[in-house]
Amino acid sequence: xxSGNGFYSVDxxxxxxxxxxxxxxxxxxxxxxxxxHAKVYEGKYKNQSVAIKIxxxxxxxxxxxxxxxxxxxxxxxxxxxxxxxxxKFIGACKEPVMVIVTELLLGGTLRKYLLNMRPSCLDKCxxxxxxxxxxxxxxxxxxxxxxxxxxxxxxLILTADQKTVKLAxxxxxxxxxxxEMMTAETGTYRWMAPELYSTVTLRQGExxxxxxxxxxxxxxxxxxxxxxxxxxxxxxxxxxxxYAAAFKNARxxxxxxxxxxxxxxxxxxxxxxxxxxxxxxxxxxxxxxLSTISPLKPVSRLSIPENTILPPESPGTSSLIALHxxxxxxxxxxxxxxxxxxFFCFNQCY
Length: 350
Fold this sequence. Notes:
- This protein has 2 domains: 17-105 and 324-349, Phosphorylase Kinase, domain 1 (2-Layer Sandwich), CATH 3.30.200.20; 110-303, Transferase(Phosphotransferase), domain 1, CATH 1.10.510.10.
- The protein contains 8 helices and 10 strands.
- It has 350 residues and is of the alpha+beta class.
- Helix 3 (124-143) packs antiparallel against helix 5, helix 3 (124-143) runs antiparallel to helix 8 (279-293) and helix 7 (259-268) packs antiparallel against helix 8 (279-293).
- Helices cover 29% and strands 14% of the residues.
- The radius of gyration is 20 Å and the shape is globular.
- A hairpin with a 2-residue loop joins strand 2 (38-45) and strand 3 (48-55).
- The two termini are 28 Å apart.
- Keywords: Kinase, Transferase.
- This is Serine/threonine/tyrosine-protein kinase HT1.
């Protein structure tokens, strides 16, 4: 599946038949999200409510090759990694267009959830519980040699009851064994580890290696945001925040935080990646802190063993999914006057 240069080729990629989606059974509904390289729709697959991620093919030969490679890599990872805190993968197809089908998560993104709460903050037990969901998902990825590289509130989706967070969007994930092939064009600067984007300062042609510890840094920024419900590096643009983190070793303030929580954050966003804890250690630190603030009220979802393996219809990505009852758009202009509850045959859209 993996070519010699570290990239996946759609031509070489072969999807196991159990994951192959038949477009004839796929029905597309309202658009619920959009990114630079894909759109996400609510849909139906064999009477199951799903999220349908349609990947843009690209306009130039180079762009087409890169997007096909990313699609093949994402599907390969989704089909082999399973966890209760990863959005469930249902299947994919590459004809007539590249499509990834996942469970439909109705709780909205963590970004929207936090925005709706402002200026209030999450209860610390809830914040730590969400952080544990995220940490366990990443621990599972790392145990399979996968780096997510794009941890941020937009890629963290809540279940319908808004009690569980699931990690989504593997579009930028890479296997750690091929990190030398990675570029600086990953993730979102405000949440990215400095070693990911500081490569732009190196001489042309010089490579900068990094490892799974980039996710620990991003996790710390997300955790800080969960606790404070404020944008990290507030008042700075994404690029200003990146410059301050990379070249001035700036970090969000640890003032007014419990000592145990401050220690966790400080260790995760250390400048030297090698001194950052791994996610097994992070989970243990979070559990220890949780026991000090809620010793008599254990959170039920934390009792599920780490890295619980789900049945084969798991895991996946459902990036950019907004709340189920948000304003919606239809996938094509010719059907935008139809009732929003309608779903249309996938083949009708292309």
